[in-house]
Amino acid sequence: MINTAALFSTAFLPGQAGFDTGTITGLAEWRCDTPMLFKLLIGAGTQAAAWPIYGDGEDCPCVLAAPMAQAQASWQALSALMDRPRDAASIVARSAISALLAGGQSWLVFDCVQLIPHDIGTQDYAAALDAVRAEAQALHSALQRGDKAALAPLLAAGAASPATGYWSASASAQLADVEELEKEDLPFLQGLEVVGWEEDALCYEVGAAGEPDVTGLVTPYGRWIVPLSQRYVDLGTCYADDGWITFATADAPDAHGVMDLNGTVVLPPAPGALYVLSPHLLQQIDPDGASRLRRLPDGALLIDRVDNMCLRNDGLIDIERQTGDADDRNVCGVIDKTGKVVVPPAYSSVQDFGTKKKIAIVSQRIAGRFLFGLVNSQGELLAPCQYEAIDCATTSSPPKLRKNLIFAIDAQGLACMLTLDGKQAFVPAYPPAHHLRGVAVQSDFLYVVNDGMAWSMDFTGQLLEQFDTVDNFKAAITAQLSEAMGLGKKKSVKRRSFTPAQILAKADREQLRAMAALLLLGDADLAARCVEITLEELAEDDPEEEYEGDTPAAACFFLLWSTAAHTQGHGTTLDWKAVDEVARIGQHIGLPALRDFAWPEREDGDAMAEGLAAIAAHLAPHQLRLVNLHGGEDTHYLGVVRTHDAAAFSKVALQAALRPVVY
């Protein structure tokens, strides 16, 4: 959706006898902004009115209305202050505005609903509408005084500009949501080649026969955003979500410029390529490869000789300074979407900032080694790059927090914990006992080496308990991990699968209803319905389809869970990486006990295991248990059972050769 300001004419206002939405006529519009002329024409004596083309606006004032006679008088007074038009387009434009305002309707309505970033009916919306009304009254007063300085943008306006907006007697302004229509229903498309519907720009890209490279953009209601007469090529509408369109001209196809969504050119074409990074930022690349960052819409140079700009998961933008030295690794930094430098380009890498603790891991290449440190969201270095490793979930993640401390290994290979301001919580004295991520540090203690033995150590640096020799400790940990990952000496058995016919042949309805009742919190009727749905779908399924399971009962049990989860809202699947979905679990599993679930204690770096534990802790007072049908796999198959059913559920699942985890 492209937010648009519009002027409408109507014989009656909502609430007056005779009002009919079918008689509303669109006079003018402008995308993404409010033209000064629209406010001037509304002027003084406006009133807030409901506007039923918005559902929330049927009974609530959300637009401004003024008598059409007042708008006509304001236009005549403004025309008297304007210089005589100097070209045919300006003469036609002024004549069109005069004619449209004299169309015979009694009221002029100014619709700025889409440009007010608040919900209709709220105090914030009412305040914003009052602010627009105040601007309109101020412009009307300036017109009455003949204050040319205050009206300068209008007095200098040509045939079409952001100050006057778009006016047309043949193309109605936007009255409803804009969507693609059939070409045969739009006379202005006849004889043109429709390249495609550009959803982001809400326009058809069209061309004329014989010139396939020259294209234009036109709305379904006939407004030409980019007329074919401009002879533009290479229209880049993929940036319309950010408010811009890139283009080149047929005469200079290797030079690119930028226009807004109204077709107004803000940056004329220049040699090279352009890439819009955000509503405020543009990357310009010269033919020789030199790259720079410019501000939109004025094109001001922000940073010269930067490259590899990329949007990050934390909403910031990575940059890399061009140095000409292929071996210079310390050139990476971060900016925000307005171009403000968050982290200067002085690092080999800058990982994502945490969502709560705005801290990121940075690295520098020092004497041939990559060492790590910490920065805050103001770009201040909290911990210098002197650590061999800093704990995080992935190579792009923020630091993982444990009791508001961060595990690190210093340049000498010694384990320590860092505070949130980058200080060492204790003097490092022992190396970690294992090199694998997630093994050296646990939730409450570290595994370290002291005199060849593996010890646990608390987060203050105090040794707690001796375990075994380092070699035995590593061997035990490695064996446990191998077993968990199915990498032991015993070859894992290939999972079996069964066809619908094989599953149906073994299906025991009574047993299935009992199993379903456990998954559905004892609702016997719903359980019976789920069983019938599952078996009916199997009977109608492709006979060649196969479903995994160690037994037909296991496959059927899993299909039964799927019916309860996806049809009845009693379960869900979550990818192991979808940690953000934990806080929204109430939207995935539709149980009353989860409606008020929140995860406020989430720390940066917490993984799915901590999220599932938080859900389980929330369910416990409700006498409910969280179950994961395939615990330990990449996808979690979640459901909920009553606490007193947990043992029975586990027993039934084990009989079907399933090994669920009950939290």
First CA to last CA: what distance? 44 Å
What is the number of strand segments? 37
The coarse silhouette is globular
- The proportion of residues in beta strands is 25-35%
Helix content: 10-25%
Query: Can you summarize the main beta sheet?
Result: 6 strands, antiparallel
Question: Oligomeric state of the chains?
Answer: single chain
Over all CA atoms, what is the radius of gyration? 33 Å
Question: Could you characterize the architecture of this molecule?
Answer:
It is a single chain. 23% of the residues lie in helices and 30% in strands. It has 663 residues and is α+β, with helices and mostly antiparallel strands. Helix 1 packs across helix 4, helix 8 packs across helix 10 and helix 9 packs across helix 10. The chain is globular. It starts with a strand and ends with a strand.
